Predict the structure.
Amino acid sequence: MIQENINFYLTLNLNDTKKELEKQLNEYPLATGFRMKSKIDQLSVDNIQITSDGILIDMGIGGNLGIFTSTVQKK
């Protein structure tokens, strides 16, 4: 019963989770002159397991992730 409630709760919040994940990945600095850009098209909860250590969630993510470079000025 707990697992069913968790599935329902996560499904309701997938849009908010997708937006927040995309926001965190966009413009993420990887190193000097390198940054990420993302567009998440799909986010789904594939499996939820309750274990003695906690809750394990398998999520599916579909979309595009790019790495962009910019010119680095030499000193």
